[in-house]
């Protein structure tokens, strides 16, 4: 057979196969040529060949029909980490480059890998390297490897839980796979994520006190006299507490609320203290127990944060009576 040379982009690589000395009727022979592609040889090429021989009976030349096959040469598969994002496991959460969460909050890490070559990249598997691995823990398993056709992307996801507070954690991602055509191993250059910050959750502490009409601390108030219940709320956590709304309760005591805190809801940043104050009047003598309940919201996890205070007891006494002699 003739060597099916096709282009200066593809060259014969190796020896030419030996001719078959004799083929009996219906007998077949196989001939193999090795070729090697050159740089810049991508495209579709046609190999055309035929066979020449002699008819042993008539001693005449014979030629086979011409056959051809097409070969597509692709650029090698090449992997690139296109994107690394974080996302809270909360409804309507957005995928963002940098994320702040609270301890024990779950979140997702998403990685997008692009194949910039033409050949299919098989068994593509991203690998995460956490610079503070003790601060987070994986929930569930690793994502399965994927095949990535040329010019397309594949998305991979992990779920983690924040275990310990940390100002900034970075994730380095690379990826590995193999070129379907050549079976060669391929890797993506590493890429570093934005910062992941883990904060201690919001934690509300309180201090409640009773003030007389002059703003002095007291344990006794007179009937029909204005006095105040003051509540100081502090956020001891790092995560901001939002929509903090206390509710004052005095049971069935004969107490009239003259005014309530304005605004009734406040936000508290880390270590911030804010004050809520109620203006009240008592119409009947006796003891009154004031309690406070309520909650805020951890801005990171959207979990409720309870608000409580130690009860405060006040004795309501008759107003002083003036006697003129």
In short:
This protein is an all-beta fold and 325 residues long. Helices cover 0% and strands 54% of the residues. The mean pLDDT is 91.
Protein model, in words:
This protein is mainly beta. 0% of the residues lie in helices and 54% in strands. Strands 19, 21, 23, 25, 26 and 27 form a six-stranded mixed β-sheet that branches. Strands 7-9-13-11 form a four-stranded antiparallel β-sheet, with no helix packed on it. A four-stranded antiparallel β-sheet has the order 12-10-15-16, with no helix packed on it.
Taking the sheet with the most strands, its summary is: 6 strands, mixed
Distance between the termini: 142 Å
Compressed to H and E, one letter per element, the order equals: EEEEEEEEEEEEEEEEEEEEEEEEEEE
Shape: rod-shaped
Helix/strand/pairing category: mainly beta
Count of runs of 4 or more consecutive helical residues? 0
What's the overall average pLDDT, rounded?
A: 91
Strand content: over 45%
